[in-house]
Amino acid sequence: MKKITRYILLALIAILFLGTFVFLYRKSRPKDIKYQDIEVAVGDIQRTTIITGKIEPRNEVNVKPQINGIIAELYKEAGQMVQENEVIAKLKVIPDMNQLSSAESRVRLSELNLKQAQTNYEREKTLYDQNLVSQEEYDQVLQAYNQAKEERTAAQDALEVIRDGVSRSNATSSSTLVRSTITGLILDIPVKVGNSVIQANTMNDGTTVATVANMSDLIFDGNIDETEVGSLVEGMPLTITIGALADYESVATLEYISPKAVENNGANQFEIKAAVATQEGVTIRSGYSANAEFVLDSVHQVLYVPESALDFDGDDIYVYLKGDDGKYTRTKVETGLSDGVDIEIKSGLKAGDTVRGPQIIEEEEN
């Protein structure tokens, strides 16, 4: 019984030893290297570039008050449409005390002048009715009287404008009403009721009451590197995609290429602008990030292979052409335009040829 056990144990050891030997032998044998076969095809090659920018309205304006004051009422809010000359807000006037004092003094002086002119006119008219003064003298006094009345009216209007922001004679064009200067969408109203606002002057840009833009006329604004700007011409088409809008794609037309470069992260870039064709039913918001794809160069119906099939040797370029016997022959080729994946073959191959591609990596057997 002990002998049988010993034989079984020796047999197991021998089997284990033999299996290990076979495994190591198979692992040490060189594997056949296999490559992908690629057929030389005919098609179009395009060299494109993609630049990042944003969508903006072509016409965006800041609506500002004509006088200093406090926001008394807001009639609109961001996101609403507004027509040209439509009222957005109403102001409560804060008069300048020096201007107010001067206007009040002007009114008092005009009333005194008018009173004196009226007295002179009544006296002259009595004499004129009695034929004691000439027509010319009478007309001069009448003219002075009328001028005094106009001056009193102008002084009163000026006082009311300074004090109230509006006068009785121009109530329809009150400067206390902030009106939109264009028809469009209100993008932002950065003020609230009770905020103080000031009009634009030589020392200050003034307070923006609302930002209004025509969202039916949009442009793409971006920057392109100096190495690629030479391929662009005004009027060329481009394709716009917006990350915030899934599956959105729109055509655009290049309208502007800046004549001067700006430095951006150490690179010289040129600003470009392109008119974006809007699509019905699609809401595009101002400031959306977008990509613009340009076709810088293209060739049509040419031979091409993947760039991974090329073998570079100095300035020469080769491929491995598969023969009828299945063997590969190193063949020199002339290349042309590349799109980063496929490359044009100008000479050295013909349509239907098979060339060697990348090596096939096989998974190891367990």
Draw up the topology in text.
Layout: H1 2-28, E1 35-39, E2 41-57, E3 60-63, E4 69-74, E5 81-82, E6 87-93, H2 97-129, H3 135-164, E7 177-179, E8 184-188, E9 196-197, E10 210-213, E11 218-225, H4 226-229, E12 237-242, E13 249-264, E14 267-276, E15 289-306, E16 311-313, E17 316-322, E18 328-338, E19 342-347, E20 354-359
Antiparallel strand pairs: 1-20, 2-11, 2-15, 3-10, 4-6, 4-9, 5-8, 6-7, 8-10, 11-14, 12-13, 12-15, 13-14, 15-19, 16-17, 17-18, 18-19
Determine the mean pLDDT.
84
Shape: elongated
Q: Helix content range of the residues, please?
A: 25-40%
Please provide the ordered H/E string of secondary-structure elements.
HEEEEEEHHEEEEEHEEEEEEEEE
Level-1 CATH class name of the domain at 97-171: Mainly Alpha
Total strand segments: 20
Indicate the CATH architecture of the domain at 97-171: Orthogonal Bundle
Q: For the largest beta sheet, what order do the strands appear in spatially?
A: 2-11-14-13-12-15
CATH topology group of the domain at 97-171 = Helix Hairpins
Helix/sheet category: alpha+beta
Number of helical segments?
Answer: 4
Termini separation comes to 38 Å
Stretches where pLDDT is under 50 for at least 5 consecutive residues are: none
Strand content: 35-45%
Question: Which sheet architecture does the biggest sheet show?
Answer: 6 strands, antiparallel, barrel
Tell me the radius of gyration.
43 Å
Short overview:
With 366 residues, the protein is an alpha+beta fold.
Please name the defining characteristics of this protein.
4 helices; 366 residues; conserved putative lor/sdh protein from methanococcus maripaludis s2 fold; 20 strands; Helix Hairpins; 6-stranded antiparallel β-barrel; alpha+beta
